[in-house]
């Protein structure tokens, strides 16, 4: 295996460990065992557990942005309700297509590891800021609306729907969540 292929294999193992056993279970030994290689192979590509976790988060953040980045509302472009509809579609489709990635992102967001928690929160804050900017630029939203708080509510609904799709897909299937979020956006954005 080339170093790049081995690196991807090891990062796949990290994702599997996070998904099945949680962030705290990731160690250089666990990754080596999961990949069927020796510890020196893992240490040849990553300096320590923090390095391999950071690399995994970098990769999954990049892939998550590839899935949803193009659907993030752009201030002043088109109807804001349609823009949020596109974000809903892209986000739910991303969670549905890559549940392991999104379970890991949710676990990292909930983890007690401050550096990793901060990274996910930073990404969420940027999304909320972009949503607020889109709301401010929309002619559908008047000056009496607290757009910052509305953006937080929209984000919370979207994030919560993603979590429900992952943990209770039989009760909250994709189509039910999609329909509910579209109704929510239509109700809260005048």
Task: Describe the 3D structure.
The chain is an all-alpha fold and 190 residues long. The protein has two domains: 3-52, Homeodomain-like (Arc Repressor Mutant, subunit A); 57-188, Tetracycline Repressor, domain 2 (Orthogonal Bundle), CATH 1.10.357. The chain contains nine helices and no strands. The protein has helices at 3-21, 28-35, 39-43, 49-68, 80-97, 99-110, 114-137, 147-167, 174-188. Helix 8 (147-167) packs antiparallel against helix 9 (174-188). The longest helix has 24 residues, at 114-137. The protein is elongated and about 60 Å long.
CATH architecture of the largest domain: Orthogonal Bundle
Number of helices: 9
The poorly predicted ranges are none
The best one-word shape is elongated
**Main CATH class of the largest domain:** Mainly Alpha
Q: List how many beta strands DSSP finds.
A: 0
CATH superfamily of the largest domain: Tetracycline Repressor, domain 2
Q: Terminal Cα separation, in Å? A: 56 Å
- Helix vs. strand class: mainly alpha
- Alpha-carbon Rg, integer: 19 Å
Give a quick account of the main beta sheet: strands, pairing sense, barrel closure.
Answer: none
What's the average pLDDT?
92
Q: How large is the share of residues in beta strands? A: under 5%
Order of helices and strands: HHHHHHHHH
CATH topology annotation of the largest domain: Tetracycline Repressor, domain 2
Binned, the helix content reads over 70%
């Amino acid at each position: 295996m080339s170093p790049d292929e081995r690196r991807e294999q090891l990062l796949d193992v990290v994702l599997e460990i996070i998904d099945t056993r949680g962030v705290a279970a990731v160690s250089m030994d666990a990754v080596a065992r999961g990949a069927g290689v020796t510890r020196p192979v893992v240490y040849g590509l990553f300096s320590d557990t923090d390095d391999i976790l950071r690399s995994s988060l970098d990769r999954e953040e990049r892939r998550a942005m590839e899935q949803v980045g193009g659907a993030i509302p752009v201030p002043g472009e088109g109807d804001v309700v349609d823009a949020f509809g596109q974000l809903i579609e892209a986000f739910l489709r991303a969670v549905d297509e890559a549940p392991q990635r999104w379970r890991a992102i949710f676990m990292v967001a909930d983890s007690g590891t401050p550096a990793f928690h901060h990274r996910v929160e930073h990404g969420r804050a940027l999304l909320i800021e972009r949503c607020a900017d889109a709301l401010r630029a929309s002619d559908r939203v008047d000056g009496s609306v607290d757009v910052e708080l509305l953006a937080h509510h929209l984000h919370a609904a979207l994030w919560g729907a993603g979590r429900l799709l992952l943990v209770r897909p039989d009760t909250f299937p994709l189509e039910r969540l999609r329909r509910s979020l579209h109704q929510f956006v239509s109700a809260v954005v005048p």
